[in-house]
Design a protein that fits this description.
This protein has about 325 residues and is mainly α. It contains 13 helices and no strands. The chain has one domain. It binds zinc ion (ZN) (2 copies). One zinc ion binds next to loops.
């Protein structure tokens, strides 16, 4: 039997402390560093005139990076377990991503942004530095995204569709795109026209769409990270985990897609100091297969379920 000397114990705990400190520092750096890298890649893509190609490469690298980090530094170890819904998650993602990219590409190809800009969209401050224009684009889009998301929670008819997203039993990068396609279309219809009306140029549409995709995947990832004051500015995983709570009083909060601006202003921001719930999802039944989930909101008995949730929420 081998014995461990006190010197060896000191060395072990010393190493452990250093490792813990390194992980602690890393947990603050990960989110901003990953997002900045994605933003840098988007800038390179736009400069090279290959925005879609660079976006897709960055998005795949982001997914692979988050997959690896979820295994190295998981926030909830039990969320690593297979929930049997990966095919459904993938099918929703492909349908939604395909739909959004087709809308953006077709929109750019027919020059919707340029036409809108020339017709009454004159107030867009094209002379501002690009970073400020992107921030303005994000705030304008957020007004629509926040409204769409809040209405999806508060209007029982739309909740039926949004419930597909909330029925996920765990959060990880892979179910970022788990939205009913009707839910996706509603948020696009409420956010994109605002940018058109503002006269935002094509480049701003690409920036806003790309940043929304990057922040969205980061928001759902199951990685142990810390955010400090960033929680009040961006839709971080810490803030979004509360949004997935089973308890409507907790989940009916943090509606921001990218920014928490409207949640802070309209008092729907919720991020207490304690650990967010690991047992997430909805209390009503939801099929686990893709086609079942797509069809589920259209079933007749859904109206009573959605109404019951609204009644619970109002208490
Ligand atoms: Zn929601
Ligand atoms: Zn979510």
């Amino acid at each position: 039997m081998s014995t461990v000397t006190s010197g060896e114990i000191d060395a072990i705990t010393g190493d452990g402390r250093e490792r813990n400190f390194a992980i602690y520092v890393l947990s603050f750096l990960l989110w901003p560093v990953i997002l900045s890298t994605c933003i840098y890649m988007t800038a390179l893509g736009l400069a090279a005139d290959h925005a879609a190609l660079y976006f897709n490469i960055t998005y795949i690298c982001l997914a692979l990076g988050l997959f690896t980090l979820e295994r190295l530094l998981p926030h909830e170890r039990k969320w690593l377990r297979n929930d049997g819904q990966m095919l459904a998650d993938l099918a929703h993602t492909l349908l939604n991503k395909g739909f959004v990219q087709v809308l953006v590409v077709v929109g750019l190809a027919i020059g919707v942004a340029e036409v809108a800009a020339s017709k009454g969209g004159g107030f867009w401050p094209a002379h501002w530095p690009i970073a400020f224009q992107i921030m303005l684009g994000l705030v304008i889009a957020e007004a629509g995204l926040y409204t769409a998301h809040r209405v999806a929670h508060e209007w029982s008819f739309l909740w039926r569709f949004h419930a597909v997203h909330h029925s996920a039993p765990r959060l990880w990068f892979f179910n970022t795109g788990r939205f009913h396609v009707v839910d996706t279309v509603t948020s696009i219809l409420l956010s994109q026209p605002l940018l058109f009306l503002a006269g935002a140029p094509s480049e701003i549409f690409i920036w806003v769409t790309s940043i929304t995709a990057f922040i969205g995947m980061l928001t759902h990832c199951n990685i142990e990270m810390r955010f400090g004051p960033l929680n009040y500015v961006f839709n971080t995983p810490a803030v979004h985990r509360w949004h997935h709570s089973r308890i409507p009083a907790e989940g009916n909060s943090n509606y921001g897609e990218n920014l928490m601006l409207f949640d802070v202003l309209l008092r729907t921001f919720y991020c207490p100091k304690r650990r967010p719930p690991a047992n997430i999802g909805i209390n009503d039944p939801m099929p686990t297969k893709f086609l079942g989930q797509v069809a589920h909101p259209f079933r007749k008995d859904q109206s009573t379920l959605a109404a019951s949730r609204t009644a619970i929420d109002s208490h």
